[in-house]
Structures are given as C-alpha cells and as structure tokens.
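Hello again, I could really use a second opinion on something today. For a while now I've been wondering how a particular protein folds. Please have a think about how the structure follows from the sequence. Here's the protein in full, and shout if anything looks odd to you:

***
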Amino acid sequence: MTVEEFNQAVNQYSDSVYRFILKNIKDEDKAKDIIQDTYEKLWKKHDEVNFLKVKSYLFSAAYHTLIDLTRREKKQAQWDDVDFKNHSHTDGYTDLNEVLHQAVERLPETQRMVVMMRDYEGYSYKEISEITKLSEAQVKVYIFRARKFLKEYIGNIEVLV
C-alpha cells in the first residue's frame, strides 16, 4: 500500500471504524485511542496489506485492539452465572431506544460485537467472520443468542409502548 492509499483509507474508513468502536466501548477518548492504535498498526504493515482489503483489516485490527483493552481492564463479566430472567425489563416505558441500548450493553462482549456489526453496520455473516476470526456458524450462533437475549430482556413490546 502506498502513502496515498493509506491516506485514502484514513479518509474513507476512519469515521465508520470510530463509530463501530464507540458504540461498543461508550468512551470517546478510548475509542480515539483505539483508532489511533489501529491506524498505527496499519502503517507498520502498510507494505503487507492489500489496499483492496484495507477495510477488513481496519475493522479486524480495531476489533482485536478493543478486545485486548477490555481484557486488560478486566471489565468482562461472567455471563454464565447470570440469571437473565432477573434482569428482564417489564415496567412500562416509552423510550424504546434507551431500553434497547440498555439491553445491548448487557450482552457479552462477543455477542454485542457481532450483533452490532450485523444490525448496525450491515455486514454480512461472511464479513463478520473474517473480521472477528470466528467461523460463520459461530457468528450465526452468537447473533441468534444475542437476539434471543434482547427479546427476553425487552419482553413484550406492548408493555413498553
């Protein structure tokens, strides 16, 4: 990749990669640091990365940097021990966006990533698989489980409206 192609990659993809990371980490400063680290990694490997695959490389590198950060901060919860029925939302509420946002935040890290990539960013299962280094079957299972949890958390839509 040339310097011009690198600059073009920055112009084309930095905003979408930033939004993706920000949706997951909810901290603007950390998201900016992750983006900075991601582009630094790209620059260090610019002669190895094909410009046609730079978008996939950027999302993969940003995703893995985010995972490394969350592991370092040990903020990953033990979701196997949580009884989700105790955390379901059944009170009447009119701000559906806020309820959905709260539900997404309760998802395990991997499930939140793949759901956001699929439903917010519009990636195909194959693209998500390439970015996250999971098999397509794993991606589908994580998305299914995440959607099932979201449905259980939100409960009956008539209660919310």
The first helix runs from residue 3 to 25. The helical segments are 3-25, 28-44, 54-73, 96-105, 109-120, 125-132, 136-154, 157-160.
